[in-house]
UniProtKB/TrEMBL annotation:
Residues forming coiled coils: none
Species: Kwoniella bestiolae CBS 10118
Entry keywords, A to Z: Signal
Stored InterPro entries: NAD(P)-bd_dom_sf (IPR036291), NAD(P)-dependent_oxidoreduct (IPR051783)
GO cellular component, as recorded: cytoplasm
Tree of life domain: Eukaryota
Protein name: NAD-dependent epimerase/dehydratase domain-containing protein
Signal peptide: 1-19
């Protein structure tokens, strides 16, 4: 297959692009940076397309190449519904295939917080078969792009909703927890401030496991049109267990709660109770990495190493 990845240098995008390369596919990946093209994409056999995906000029560049591909995946950093719809429409505008030609698969990367129902029992539980929720204000824009992708007649549209993703540079776990713990570990008190509530349960997934789901879904695109997959481990973890594990590996002595500010931080401490099954049922996908708490020694070291690399750039 020819695969086109928008956001191929990203936390989710790079492992996904590498998974397609390893599986033998021809992979194109966008970046706005010549340096990332030379250092992250080309060395990993990902064909770099250097363009700003949202600019008029960039849209022409990537739209033309993406239109020749069998799979297009939007893994750009989230920027609201308008920009994601713009990206989807630009791809559709460039599609010009003879009648009867196979349709391409289009995968939009969304997030699990659009299914969150909060902490509780089975009434709060969710999976791919459950409707979306209005619980988290921060993500109420997601259906505005998900629905047109899923209902499009021009593509095999699929949505992958990621849980909170861990591994490598830590992504949201770095900004909410690791960065604060690292700073505090160098102080006398060794106590870090972080946004949490005692009851919060986090649904998470390793970035390599999510990459494997992209690959499996993309290869089966023509029979998965209109499906939503949830990329999450089979069990959730209590946020305080994650924080306790960070205390253990960072040399800190504890943590203090700071109140959530704004809708994103409210979403961070919302509980998403989930055990996904559609990825396994339709593609044989099963996450293989250790959970965040169990593998914290590895994930903390990887976070530190990635931070050091970034700081010396
Ligand atoms: N990370 C998570 O835990 C998580 C969980 C669930 C869902 N998601 C969703 O997955 C998607 C990707 O997330 P991510 O964490 O992988 O994102 P990311 O690493 O922050 O960004 C992905 C790529 O988007 C490009 N980009 C960033 N800002 C841009 C801008 N202003 N204009 C054009 N391109 C830009 C960058 O490529 P260049 O700089 O090379 O151009 C970057 O490598 C988002 O929709 C996010 O909401 C993420």
């Amino acid at each position: 297959m020819k695969v086109f990845i928008l956001g191929a240098t990203g936390f989710l995008g790079l492992p996904a692009a590498e998974a397609f390369v390893r599986a033998g596919h021809i992979v194109y990946g966008t970046t706005r940076s010549e340096r990332s093209a030379a250092e992250k994409l080309a060395p990993n056999e990902i064909i770099p397309i250097v363009a700003d995906p949202y600019s008029d000029e960039g849209k022409k560049v990537w739209g033309k190449i993406a239109a020749q591909c069998d799979v297009v995946i939007d893994i750009l950093s989230a920027n609201g519904a308008k920009s994601a719809i713009d990206i989807f429409h630009n791809f559709l505008d460039h599609l010009d295939r003879l009648k009867g030609s196979p349709k391409p698969t289009y995968i939009y990367t969304s997030g699990l917080w659009i299914n969150t129902r909060g902490y509780g029992g089975l009434d709060k539980w969710t999976d791919e078969r459950q409707p979306t929720s209005t619980y988290n204000d921060a993500v109420q824009w997601r259906p505005l792009i998900e629905v047109p992708v899923l209902e499009s007649e021009k593509v095999h549209g699929v949505v992958i909703r990621g849980a909170v993703v861990y591994g490598r540079d830590g992504s949201a776990f770095a900004s909410y927890i690791f960065d604060e713990a690292l700073k505090a570990s160098k102080t006398e008190e060794k106590v870090f401030d972080t946004v949490y509530s005692k009851e919060t349960r986090i649904a998470s997934i390793h970035t390599d496991d999510m990459a494997d789901l992209y690959l499996r879904v993309a290869e089966r695109g023509p029979i998965l049109k209109g499906q939503v997959f949830m990329a999450s481990n089979q069990a959730t973890e209590r946020l305080t267990d994650i924080l306790d594990a960070v205390v253990r590996v960072s040399g800190c002595t504890g943590y203090k709660a700071k109140p959530p500010k704004g809708a994103m931080q409210e979403a961070w401490i919302s509980s998403t109770l989930i055990k996904p099954s559609l990825g396994d049922a339709l593609t044989g996908w099963r996450p293989r990495k250790m959970s965040l708490v169990d593998g914290m020694d590895i994930y903390w070291s990887s976070y530190l190493a990635n931070k050091r690399l970034r700081d010396t750039e």
